[in-house]
Write a structure and sequence with these properties.
The chain has about 375 residues and is α/β, with parallel strands linked by helices. Helix content is about 45%, strand content about 20%. It is built from 15 helices and 15 strands. The protein has a 9-stranded mixed beta sheet, with helices on both faces. A 3-stranded antiparallel beta sheet has the order 10-11-12, with no helix packed on it. Strands 13-15-14 form a 3-stranded antiparallel beta sheet. The site of iron/sulfur cluster has 11 residues, from loops. Belongs to the anaerobic coproporphyrinogen-III oxidase family. HemW subfamily.
Length: about 375
């Protein structure tokens, strides 16, 4: 089984912290849809497996008309073999969600909605330069549920200077009370060249407080675990049977194809990424050439990718899998590197799996780096 990701590179406003590839000028949106539909045919040979997940991300896919989303979806269904129960997710922003759109998305087969809420606190939303209000954040979730989207996930951001511990708790509790079945929660990161980065450098705003972020993350784990959510990946929490199948396939190292500018593809042995420039992408597709760069992963790089992604998941790193695929030496080296973390309760070992504890999740990247070969 494989997945397809479609990158829609347009947004209404530039959020201060964002470094994804997008444009706030929408004059080329229709042309971009034509190009993505054309890329579907050009990429026909990349995937031989059945498609189990399709994910419209970006950018802001909910800026597209229903017809534009459906054109891409139809092109995928005609070109690839899509399984009957495929998970089809659409990322949306609260200010785009209307009853008409929800009906249209359902009718075309979108069965999972991801809403970029980020916060239910007005000051926090203004600080991030989000396009929606706190009221819109709550209303759109209720409207989506009313129109049948029970498989619904929201994004929340913590560790912003405008978010107190009490407000963070309120944000998480609001999501629980609204009956949201999946949450993706991210610490605010200051990416180079973003508006946030510039404002911090000019000392217009305070830098991110790492300790406050760690505290928010610890509290988040406590609250959501107590509320019955599975913490199935560092940043992701789900009610039973509501994990993201698409994102899980990334962490399980399955094959996926990325369509659109800046989209990444992976087949287990190589990674490729389309050019992150709308005009150059469309010009190249017009000549029937997909503009991408490719990196072939060495066996050691493949092992390190496995260490990084598996440790982030609830299932953890399978020592048996490491032994079978990369040999005894890698198996022994990983166990040796893990020894101190096991001793200090940052990790546990059971059934041939290494798993992070809550304390370990706070320093997951550092632990993974220490286990790298
Ligand atoms: S809407 Fe999403 S992709 Fe667009 S600028 Fe904001 S965070 Fe980035």
């Amino acid at each position: 089984m494989a997945g397809i990701y479609i990158h829609i590179p347009f947004c209404r406003k530039a959020c201060h912290y964002c470094n994804f590839h997008f444009s706030t000028t929408h004059s080329l949106l229709a042309q971009m849809i034509d190009a993505i539909v054309a890329e579907v045919a050009l990429q026909q040979l990349y995937l031989q497996e059945k498609i189990d997940t399709i994910y419209f991300g970006g950018g802001t896919p909910s800026l597209c008309t229903a017809e534009q989303i459906e054109r891409i979806l139809q092109a995928i269904k005609v070109t690839f073999s899509v399984s009957d129960g495929a998970e089809i997710t659409l990322e949306s922003n609260p200010d785009d969600i209307t009853a008409e759109r929800l009906i249209a998305w359902q009718q075309m087969g979108i069965n999972r909605l991801s809403i970029g809420v980020q916060s239910f606190v007005e000051d926090d939303l203004r600080w991030m330069n989000r396009a929606h209000s706190a009221t819109q954040a709550t209303d759109c979730i209720q409207l989506a549920q009313q129109y049948g989207f029970t498989n619904l996930t929201i994004d929340l951001i913590y560790g912003t200077p405008t978010l107190s511990d009490e407000q963070w708790q309120q944000n998480v509790q609001t999501a629980i009370d609204l009956g949201v079945t999946h949450l993706s929660c991210y610490a605010l990161t200051v990416e180079p060249k973003t508006a946030l980065d510039k404002m911090i450098q000019l000392e217009k705003i305070a830098n991110v407080d790492i300790e406050q972020q760690a505290k928010h993350f610890e509290l988040l784990m406590q609250w959501l675990q107590a509320a019955g959510f599975e913490h199935y990946e560092i940043s992701n929490f789900a009610r039973p049977d509501h994990r993201s199948r698409h994102n899980s396939s990334y962490w399980q190292g399955k094959t996926y194809l990325g369509l659109g500018p800046s989209a990444h593809s992976f087949n287990g042995y190589s990674r490729q990424w389309n050019i992150a420039n709308n005009a150059l992408y469309m010009a190249s597709i017009a000549k029937e050439v997909v503009p991408f760069e490719v990196e072939h992963l060495t066996p050691t790089q493949q092992l390190n990718e496995y260490i990084m992604t598996s440790l982030r998941t609830m299932e953890g790193l399978s020592l048996q899998h490491v032994q079978l695929r990369w040999g005894n030496a890698a198996h022994t080296a990983i166990l040796q590197a893990a020894h101190l973390y096991l001793h200090d309760n940052y990790m546990v070992q059971s059934d041939q799996y290494l798993r992070l504890t809550n304390a370990g999740r706070l320093i997951a990247d550092g632990i993974a780096a220490d286990l790298f070969q």
